[in-house]
Specification:
The chain is an alpha/beta fold and 374 residues long. It contains 18 helices and 7 strands. It binds adenosine-5'-diphosphate and magnesium ion.
């Protein structure tokens, strides 16, 4: 217990997170069943934990069950318990998770993995707190708050007949959706700093700082593994670079983003997201080179006030601080498009990306492919 200032485990100042905290505050004191959806690593368990911590059950058990990790054959016995002798190997009575969570909260993670026949029993517990142990003949009662989570599209599972519609509607009455990290970029630096502080606090590892371009890259990366990936990345990054100021190259290496080796031949093995990251990596390198060159030249007073050069790719100082990735990409591609008369082959070679990717980008930015058909 502290003096009333509640320290949230859910960090972030972005609008979605601030709203999320508000929703948690509203639902936590009730016993209503909550469904949390969001990509893997986006913080579903953190949210479930917060709901429990802010509920009147906070000093009672919080039991997490990963439905996807329990073999189908034993899941009912794990959830509801079994009576001695009910099946081969049931040598003792066994308490299930629901019983263990009694008077507290049960968090059923990866609810989409629950086998269909178990879903029926689960629905019954949600509706009236009743269930039967495996091999048992009497109805048991529990008082638990149920929170479920999934990264699956349950509607799709319903289409495939692997998730019950009635259960879905029952669960969905309160649906908390956690946006992926890439949609709340404003939180990335804050989370990074927090993970650095936590990690260096727990270990005798020194953090000597990080360059602005490196942190900018981290902020703009798309983090397919969300906060979990950012956390693991941060820990590895500072462990492997404990003796120095962390630079962009260290970040790229840690994320396995090839620096100057964007070979068209290898790009086929990547999905669209990877391609985007690769291209982003290349553009970022280019931007960095430009900034480096400008920096080197900055002692020449004229350079600072110079107008846009007649030729060459140039993004003004003002702009480079505020430009989005897409705008930057568009600028760059338009420049090359004009320079090489829309010749896809030459531009792709120049940028070391596949013709296919470039072609798609051109379409995206309304640059006509002209006579250079692929
Ligand atoms: N908003 C957040 N603030 C602080 N840590 C977070 C946040 N979101 C996620 N994490 C951390 O990221 C990791 C993954 O979160 P978790 O809740 O397990 O994700 P999910 O259940 O959606 O896969 C955990 O270590 C968790 O503590
Ligand atoms: Mg999880």
């Amino acid at each position: 217990m502290n003096n009333g200032t509640y320290q949230s485990g859910l960090l972030g100042n972005s609008i979605p997170i601030v709203e999320l905290r508000e929703i948690i505050k509203q639902v936590a004191p009730t016993d209503v069943t909550v469904l949390i959806t969001g990509e893997s690593g986006s913080g579903k368990e953190v949210v479930a934990n917060e709901i429990h911590k802010q509920s009147k059950r906070s000093d009672k058990p919080f039991i997490t069950v990963n439905c996807g990790a329990i073999p189908e054959g034993i899941i009912e016995s794990e959830l509801f318990g079994h009576v001695k002798g009910s099946f081969t190997g049931a040598t003792e009575n066994r308490k299930g998770y629901f019983e263990a969570a009694n008077s507290g909260t049960i968090f059923l993670d990866e609810i989409g993995e629950l086998p269909l026949q178990t879903q029926v029993k689960f629905l019954r517990v949600i509706e009236n707190g009743e269930y039967m142990k495996v091999g048992g003949n009497k109805t048991e009662r529990v008082d638990v708050r149920i929170i479920a989570a999934t990264n699956k599209n349950l509607e799709q599972l319903i289409q495939n007949n692997s998730f019950r519609e009635d259960l879905y509607y029952r669960l969905r009455s309160i649906n908390i959706v956690i946006p992926p990290l890439r949609e709340r970029k404003g939180d990335i630096k804050l989370l990074f700093d927090k993970f650095v502080a936590e990690f260096t606090g727990r270990n005798t590892i020194q953090f000597n700082g990080i360059t602005p371009d490196a942190i900018e890259f981290i902020t703009n990366y798309n983090w397919p593994g969300n906060v979990r990936q950012l956390k693991n990345f941060t820990e590895s990054l500072i462990t492997l670079n404990a003796d120095k100021i962390i630079e962009l190259d260290d970040v790229m290496r840690q994320l396995s983003i090839p620096k100057n080796e964007l070979m068209p031949a290898t790009i086929n093995g990547y999905n669209k997201q990877d391609e985007r990251q690769l291209l982003f990596g290349a553009l970022f390198e280019l931007k960095k080179d430009i900034m480096d060159i400008k920096h080197q030249l900055s002692h020449i007073e004229e350079v600072r006030s110079a107008a846009v050069p007649e030729s060459g790719f140039y993004v003004s100082d003002d702009k480079i601080d505020n430009i989005t990735f897409d705008e930057f990409e568009q600028e760059l591609l338009t420049y090359y498009y004009n320079k090489y008369n829309g010749n896809i082959n030459r531009i792709a070679e120049k940028l070391k990306i596949s013709n296919r990717t470039l072609y798609r980008k051109f379409k995206q930015y309304g640059l006509k492919n002209g006579k250079y058909n692929l």
